[in-house]
UniProtKB/TrEMBL annotation:
It comes from the Bacteria. This is Glutathione synthase/RimK-type ligase, ATP-grasp superfamily. PANTHER family: GLUTATHIONE SYNTHETASE, PTHR39217.
Length: 224
């Protein structure tokens, strides 16, 4: 574990849950420890807690809520200094037409079919996959569908895929069923302990990379 140094800037990171689940999903219980192992300190708050406004980085991990709060939620995404995923990606993904945008980009969809496999991308890179029964190892062509969907989404929003901290691509065979860029369930509890540990390390590394990209890395702001 990296020890904190008083002369180094330590970004204030919030893992944002929903009003119903202010500490996120039960499966996310290991994220604080995974971040701490990289020398990063985070705390849980509901997205509508005013204290999120003072955070250096906010990672949305749960966004359940009544439909009448949708505009309030979207407004909140635009007030946070550094939100992951970016507000534009969240707003685009909330629009029911997002699948049509991806299909227009040449990615085959099949929205009325049940998902068979969930593909997880962290920091724009493939991390792990799972099914209802546990972890999975999809063939390359299935991962290709996930990469294509992520690239199409990033292009629609006008960002690089690497700017998407977290993404879940649900597929049925070689067709896209759905894409979640808002606060995707990452399937931690479906992975065995070793795979989960490596995947949560991937998450922490992606957060670390995002901090450096945003000029918020631990070595970005030396104190006098």
């Amino acid at each position: 574990m990296k020890l904190a140094r008083p002369d180094v800037f330590h970004p204030r990171i919030v893992l944002a849950g929903s009003p119903q689940h202010p500490r996120g999903r039960r499966e996310d219980a290991g994220l604080v420890a995974a971040l701490r192992a990289r020398g990063l300190h985070a705390r849980w708050l509901s997205w509508d807690d005013s204290a999120t406004g003072s955070a250096d980085l906010v990672i949305l991990r749960a966004a359940e809520g009544p439909a009448e709060r949708r505009e309030e939620f979207l407004g909140w995404t635009r007030t946070v200094a550094n939100l992951l995923n970016p507000p534009a990606a969240i707003a685009w993904n909330l629009n029911d037409r997002y699948l049509g945008d991806i299909e227009d980009a040449g990615v085959p969809t099949q929205p009325d079919e049940p998902a068979q496999t969930a593909l997880i991308f962290l920091g724009g890179r493939q991390s792990h996959a799972f099914t209802e029964s546990g972890s999975a190892e999809p063939e390359f062509d299935i991962w290709d569908v996930g990469h294509a969907a992520l690239a199409a989404a990033a292009e629609c929003v006008g960002i690089a895929a690497s700017e998407l901290l977290q993404a879940r691509v649900d597929v049925n065979g070689d067709r896209l069923v759905s894409l979640d860029l808002i606060a995707p369930s990452l399937g931690w509890r479906r992975l065995d302990a070793d795979v989960r540990g490596l995947a949560q390390r991937d998450f922490a590394l992606a957060v670390e990379s995002a901090l450096h990209r945003l000029g918020l890395g631990p070595l970005s702001h030396r104190r006098p």
